[in-house]
Fold this sequence. Notes:
The structure holds two protein chains of two kinds.
Chain A: H1 3-19, H2 21-27, H3 29-59, E1 63-67, H4 77-81, H5 88-97, E2 103-117, E3 120-130, E4 142-145, H6 150-154, E5 159-162, H7 164-170, E6 180-183, E7 186-194, E8 208-212, H8 213-220, E9 228-232, H9 239-253, E10 265-267, H10 270-312, H11 314-322, H12 327-367, H13 380-406, H14 410-415
Helix pairs in contact in A: 1-12, 3-10, 3-12, 3-13, 5-9, 10-12, 10-13, 12-13
Chain B: E1 6-19, E2 22-35, E3 39-43, H1 50-57, E4 65-70, E5 73-74, H2 80-90, E6 91-94, H3 106-116, H4 121-134, H5 150-162, E7 168-172, H6 180-195, E8 199-203, H7 207-210, E9 215-220, E10 223-229
Parallel strand pairs in B: 3-8, 3-9, 6-7, 7-8
Antiparallel strand pairs in B: 1-2, 1-4, 4-5, 9-10
Amino acid sequence: MTFVEFKETIVIAIDAMKGNKLRSLLASLGVVIGISTVILMGWVLTGLQTAMDETFRMIGVDILYIDKWDWAGGKNWKLVRQRKDITFEQADIMMERLNNAELIFPTARDWGGSIKYENLIFNGITIIGTTSNHGLTSAGETIEGRYFTPFEESIHSKVVVLGHKVYTTIFPDGNALNQTIKINGHKFLVIGVIRKQGTMFFDFIDNQVFIPVGSFVGMYGRHNRSISIGIKAGSEEMLDEVREEARGIMRSIRNVDPKDEDDFSINETKAFENQVATLKLYVWGIGIGMTVLSFIVGIIGIMNIMFVSVTERTKEIGIRMAIGAKRRSILFQFIVESSTLCFTGAIISLIICSGITFAVATILPKFVEEAGFLTPFLPFQLLVIASIVSIFVGVLSGIIPAIRASKLNPIDALRFE
Amino acid sequence: MNDKKLIIDIENISKLYRMGVETVYALRDITLQIHENEYVAIMGPSGSGKSTLMNILGCLDTPSGGKYLFGGEDVSVMDDDDLADIRNRKIGFVFQTFNLLARATAIKNVELPLVYSGRPSGQRHETAKQALIDVGLEDRITHKPNELSGGQRQRVAIARALVTNPSIILADEPTGNLDSKTGEEIITLFRDLWHKGNTIILVTHEEEIARHANRIIRLRDGLIERDEINQQSNLN
């Protein structure tokens, strides 16, 4: 196979396709659907991954939470419920003993708090009592105002830093700073707003407000709930070391017998990653099912049209063989033709999908906030994958008809009318 | 007898087909030599084996027995690829039904053998254009077969046969689909090609056409019935 022949074969393939425009278009429809599924699925998953990475980065990938509860679930729920609460006293001992961590911040939560502003009441907001150390983590970065200070913490100030969703819900016009809101009936001064962190189904992490831990205890009491101990390791590399040190300290504080399992959980953003991995698996599963199905339909369609093409052009094959085409030239010619057909299908898919993704990513988030993670452009690697897949499908569907064409006897082929 | 270069050297070749339990001999025991710049007509009634002989001469088929040397190379033992190569470089075919690619222009048709021999496109175009000029079709280069008359189509086919500068031109009833006037023109063209030094083998059943050759081989029942120099040849 010379380069000249290769080039010429592609020209022949395109000519053959042009000669039967409608037929080629219909034949490649299955491939168009298949490739489109792959592209759109990849697009959603890429967006999902980017959004997740962004969220985790903002929450902080180097942060651990020692909790009574396991974020990811999976552990025996009844046993977990029987665990002893994690207390402020334990948090204090942890702060004394843990050496390797950068920051430690006890965190107490009221999951179903309500906030009153002017005459409006907002329910289902998580009220978090923590220390000013939390304000030093990436999860405590403010876009307006500031976090509360160690001093405000020490005097149990009635100040509050709002999560982004709380901010946009209560103050749709902005201007939250220095406003007074009532948390569970107590007046608090808004001093800051946290940067938006969550995307999609993680936006619950923006539906929180942060107040000094002393103020929290003043309202809710000290011993009627299990708190969590937030630990910032300082870097991802330090994570393992800090986790093990914290685990040892925690077991010692809580007198866990060496042969028993931990009676607490150490949670980190990885727990979410597992959940998202499951979700991605579902998307892939459905997507691959659809893709395989449409590719099978596509391959059958193309193969069928290639068989028709081989039969129609038997005489042409005979002529080509008579004037010197080798069997592999004929084989190659028909494989190139089916690949060209599929590749054209891929290009059509890319055009359609570009339109769809652009339209969806620009319009949908206006109605569904959760769709904001979608990008209006197709990732480049998807285009490469789609092209390669299409050519692979082309070869697959063209190979049997091509073999049949190349096996023709030149004399019989020439005689064919 | 002939001091010119030997091109085709066939020794005792046979071709048999199995049809069910019966074995049919299309060619029985043919021995034949053709030299450079001969103009040979192969004649015979249908079923005489002339098509089979033509297919073997043209390396489209291989004999069941015997030996076939083409320009000194033993083609009776070659595989499909080598045969394709011989057809591409050494043989120019002209068919009764022209056998042009309907979708391709005259020049693209003529270029085709050069594509399979791997010639770059610029060179290919020039060579093919010259071949079309040689057969008198300089003003039909970009026409498609359906825009050409029968005679013009056959000229394109002849240009395609000539373009690789082959050792032999093998024509199978080249005037069979043409009216007698056009047929005459094509025969004249063959005569011109012969004068230029080409070797021509013509398969025909028409005495009128065969008369133009300087040697006539008559087949009957798979055997050479007569192989004679045509004294009345009006070639000279």
